[in-house]
């Protein structure tokens, strides 16, 4: 019997074996004809699943693949907390027992549509009205928190030997992202930040502005990565690449006095309140965290009254000013650890005045040559 009914359920059930694996469950169909169609589809899925399983020799249930990915690679990411959150979101959306072989282009597309409806999160309790007033997450966030993560799961499973007959078409799923704007910090804004700055956070933000390093890289900076002798900071950057950053006189003035505040991490804060549960003692110093610096940044920006300036704009500010000062794109690319020069080209607008001057110089040179030629006597006419 391919499909059957059980007591206390209006739906037909299915239960079959394929290559030693048992597949069973509810068809959620009340008619035998529809139930048999459902069961036929499940048999096709079972064939694809066992075929992929035979190659990978590991479970392809999304929860199991996510667990192996986390243990093998995810926990070592630059932002493991974000990786864990994104993996958990996908597992919850599809269901722990869903095999990757069941996730085709259509299901991945529905995932994107679902995620697009999410709003930017805010800490603390908010009313429904306040939640509804929050902006929707950006298309970049949708891409990075869904398709990029799901694609990584598929790639990891394929590295283990699995092969998928109906893998989603990744490029078609990515939402268009607006070109990232470049925002410079004005002189008055810099002064406003300095005036509103909390003293224990001042070295951190000074380092961010002077180095152009990413927020996560600054927060997690360790003393083992800082070498005052060689005047270098050597660490792993975005994408696991080795990054060497010079310790300039300005950087040294920021970092050198911080020695001894914490055994492992460079940047710390002084606890304003004690917390027995977290083991926090008022006045003691503790290593900064991503969430803590985000909160501090929001408070600082409001207190300083600076609008439309994001944390990441400190990096844009340095890149823009460096390119204006040197005119050397390759140098800026290396300083900001851009893998592709295209990322550095976003700052090329600062060279517009140089381009205009060069074009004008060429035009003047041509005019001068033309006038000289017209004033030269014609020997044949004479």
Indicate the overall shape: globular
In the CATH scheme, the class of the largest domain would be Mainly Alpha
State the helical fraction: 40-55%
- Number of alpha- plus pi-helical segments: 16
The major beta sheet can be summarized as: 3 strands, antiparallel
Spatial order of the strands forming the largest sheet: 1-2-3
| First-last Cα distance | 113 Å
Overall pLDDT: 85
**CATH topology of the largest domain, anyone?**
hpI Integrase, Chain A
**Helix/strand/pairing category:** mainly alpha
Reading the helices and strands in chain order gives EEEHHHHHHHHHHEEEHEEHHHHH
Q: Approximately how much beta-strand content do the residues carry? A: 5-15%
- Based on DSSP secondary structure assignment, what is the total number of beta strands? 8
Rg: 29 Å
CATH superfamily of the largest domain: Intergrase catalytic core
What is the architecture of the largest domain at the second tier of CATH?
A: Orthogonal Bundle
Spans where pLDDT lies below 50 across 5 or more residues: none
Oligomer: single chain
**Overall structural domain count:** 3
């Amino acid at each position: 019997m391919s499909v059957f009914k059980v007591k206390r359920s209006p739906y037909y059930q299915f239960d079959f074996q394929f290559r030693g694996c048992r597949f069973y469950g509810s068809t959620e169909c009340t008619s035998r004809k529809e139930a048999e169609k459902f069961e036929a589809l499940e048999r096709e899925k079972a064939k694809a699943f066992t075929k992929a399983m035979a190659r990978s020799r590991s479970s392809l249930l999304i929860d199991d693949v996510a667990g192996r990915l986390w243990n093998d690679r995810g926990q070592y990411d630059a932002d493991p907390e974000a990786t864990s959150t994104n993996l958990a979101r996908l597992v919850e959306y599809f269901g722990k027992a869903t095999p990757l072989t069941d996730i085709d282009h259509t299901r991945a597309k529905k995932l994107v549509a679902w995620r697009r409806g999410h709003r930017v999160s805010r800490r603390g309790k908010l009313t429904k009205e306040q939640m509804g007033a929050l902006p929707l997450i950006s298309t970049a966030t949708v891409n990075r928190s869904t398709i990029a993560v799901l694609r990584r799961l598929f790639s990891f499973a394929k590295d283990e030997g699995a092969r998928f007959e109906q893998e989603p078409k990744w490029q078609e799923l990515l939402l268009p992202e607006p070109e990232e704007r470049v925002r410079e910090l004005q002189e008055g804004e810099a002064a406003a930040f300095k005036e509103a700055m909390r003293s224990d956070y001042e070295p951190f933000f000074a380092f961010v502005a002077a180095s152009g390093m990413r927020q996560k890289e600054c927060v997690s900076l360790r003393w083992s990565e800082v070498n005052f002798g060689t005047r270098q900071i050597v660490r792993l950057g975005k994408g696991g690449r080795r990054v060497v950053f010079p310790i300039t006189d300005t950087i040294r003035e920021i970092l050198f006095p911080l020695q001894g505040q914490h055994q492992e991490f460079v940047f710390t804060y002084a606890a304003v309140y004690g917390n027995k549960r977290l083991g926090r003692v008022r006045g003691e110093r503790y290593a900064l965290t991503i969430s803590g610096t985000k909160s501090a940044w929001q408070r600082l920006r409001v207190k300083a009254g600076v609008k439309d300036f994001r944390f990441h704009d400190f990096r844009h500010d340095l890149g823009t000013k460096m390119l204006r000062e040197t005119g050397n794109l390759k140098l800026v690319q290396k300083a900001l650890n851009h893998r592709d020069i295209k990322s550095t080209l976003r700052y090329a607008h600062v060279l517009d005045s140089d381009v205009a001057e060069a074009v004008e110089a060429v035009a003047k040179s041509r005019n001068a040559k033309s006038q000289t030629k017209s004033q030269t006597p014609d020997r044949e006419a004479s």
